[in-house]
Design goal:
The chain is an alpha/beta fold. Helices cover 37% and strands 17% of the residues. The protein contains 4 helices and 4 strands. The chain has helices at 14-26, 45-53, 81-86, 110-130, and strands spanning 2-8, 30-36, 75-78, 95-98. Strand 3 (75-78), helix 3 and strand 4 form a beta-alpha-beta unit. The termini are close together.
Length: 132
C-alpha cells in the first residue's frame, strides 16, 4: 500500500478533505494522512459537511506534521502556499508535490467548500493515478 501525506498550514480543511477523499475513493491503493505545519486543533465543520454531501464520513483530527517524521511516504503533497514554503521542514522520504487550493475557510461560504472539495477530488485523484 502506498502512503501519501497531505500537508497544509492549519490541517483543518483542505488537507483533511484530501485525506478523506483519497481514503474513500482510492483506499485500495493509497493510504492517506494529513497534517499541518501549525495545526488549528480542529477540523472545520463545513469541510465535514462538504464531505458528507458526497457520502464520505470523515473522523479526522488536526495533527502536527511532526507526528509523521520517520514515516516513508510515496508522496508528500502540499495543498497551500504557506505549507509549500515551510516544506523544507519535512525531512522524510517521498517525492514532494505542490498544488495550491484556495482556502474556503476565508469566506466560510458553503459553496466555496464544495468548489474546493470538487477541485481536490479531481486534481488529487489524477495526481495519485499518475503515481500508482
Amino acid at each position: 500500500m502506498k502512503k501519501v501525506l497531505f500537508l497544509c498550514t492549519g490541517n483543518s480543511c483542505r488537507s483533511q478533505m484530501a485525506e478523506a477523499i483519497v481514503n474513500a475513493k482510492m483506499g485500495e491503493v493509497w493510504q492517506a494522512v494529513s497534517a499541518g505545519t501549525k495545526p488549528a486543533g480542529y477540523v472545520h465543520p463545513k469541510a465535514l459537511d462538504a464531505l458528507s454531501e458526497i457520502g464520505i464520513q470523515h473522523t479526522g483530527r488536526s495533527k502536527l506534521a511532526d507526528e509523521f517524521k520517520g514515516v516513508d511516504f510515496e508522496l508528500v503533497v502540499t495543498v497551500c502556499d504557506s505549507a509549500a514554503e515551510e516544506c523544507p521542514i519535512w525531512l522524510g522520504k517521498g517525492k514532494k508535490v505542490h498544488h495550491s487550493f484556495s482556502d474556503p475557510a476565508v469566506t466560510d461560504d458553503m459553496d466555496d467548500f464544495r468548489k474546493v472539495r470538487d477541485e481536490i477530488e479531481r486534481v488529487i485523484i489524477e495526481l495519485l493515478k499518475r503515481h500508482s
